[in-house]
Amino acid sequence: RKEVEQDPGPFNVPEGATVAFNCTYSNSASQSFFWYRQDCRKEPKLLMSVYSSGNEDGRFTAQLNRASQYISLLIRDSKLSDSATYLCVVNKVTGGYQKVTFGIGTKLQVIP
Amino acid sequence: NAGVTQTPKFQVLKTGQSMTLQCAQDMNHNSMYWYRQDPGMGLRLIYYSASEGTTDKGEVPNGYNVSRLNKREFSLRLESAAPSQTSVYFCASSFIGQKGTEAFFGQGTRLTVV
What is the pLDDT of residues B62-113, one digit of tens each? Predict the structure, then answer.
C-alpha cells in the first residue's frame, strides 16, 4: 500500500463548478499535511496547509480527518486558472529528519 | 530572494556519461532533498540531507550520489547515466520545525539520457 494515495484523475469540470479531491495516508504518526499545486512542466508550490479544524483560503477549503487518515481539498467556483495537478503531502519529523511524502497528484482540468 | 536554485534546467546526456546537478538555497533551511518525477509515478525521493554533513538514501537511490557541500548546497551526481534516469529532477529544501514545514522546490532539471 502506498503511504499517500490519491486518485490521479483527470477531473474534468466546467467553470464555476465545485470539485473535491481526497487523499488517504497510511502512517498514523504523520504530523503535518499540505496541498501543493503543480502546473505543467513547473515545480510544485505550496497551496495551503491542512489542519484538523479545517481551513479556508478564498475558494479553497482543506480538511484533515486524523481518525480516518483522510485529507480533502474543496475548490469552489472553479476557474480556468485552477487547471493543474494537486499533490497531497504528508510530513513526519523523526530524529531531526523531516520525511516528506507526496501523493501521485490529482489532475484537474477546468473546461470553459 | 532566490529561494531554491537548480542548474542546469535542461540536459541531454549519452549513456555512460556523468554529470552533477547543482542545487542551492538561500533560506537557511537545514534539510534538503532530491526528487525525480516520472509520468504516472509522482515524486520519488532519491536522497535527502537532514543537516549539513549528513546524507541518507531515499526511495530510489541506485545510480546516484549526493554531496551536502555546506548548508546552502546539495548536489546530485550521476556517475554513469542510463536511459532509465531520463526524468525531471527537483531539488527541495525545508526548515525542520517541531512538526515539519512545507518544502520549497527549485524549478527542476529536465534530463534526457540517450
Answer: 999 999 989 999 999 999 999 999 999 999 998 876 666 788 999 999 999 9
Contact flag A43-B106 (C-beta cutoff 8 Å): yes
User: Which distant-in-sequence residues (6+ apart) come within 8 Å of B9 by Cβ?
Assistant: B107, B108, B109, B110
Calculate how close chain B gets to A72, using CA atoms only, in Å.
Answer: 17
CA–CA gap between residue B66 and residue B48 (Å, rounded): 9
Task: Output the nine-digit C-alpha cell for B62.
Answer: 541506485
Task: Kindly list the distances between the CA atom of residue B94 and the CA atoms of A35, A60, B32, in Å, as whole numbers in the listed order.
Answer: 15, 24, 6
CA B92 to CA B90: how far, in whole Å?
6
Query: Prior bond to A44 cis, omega within 30?
Result: no
Residue reference for cell 541518507: B56
pLDDT computed for residue A52 by the predictor: 86
CA distance A79 to A19: 11
Nearest-CA distance B62 → chain A (Å): 19
Pairwise CA distance, residues B69 & B73, whole Å: 6
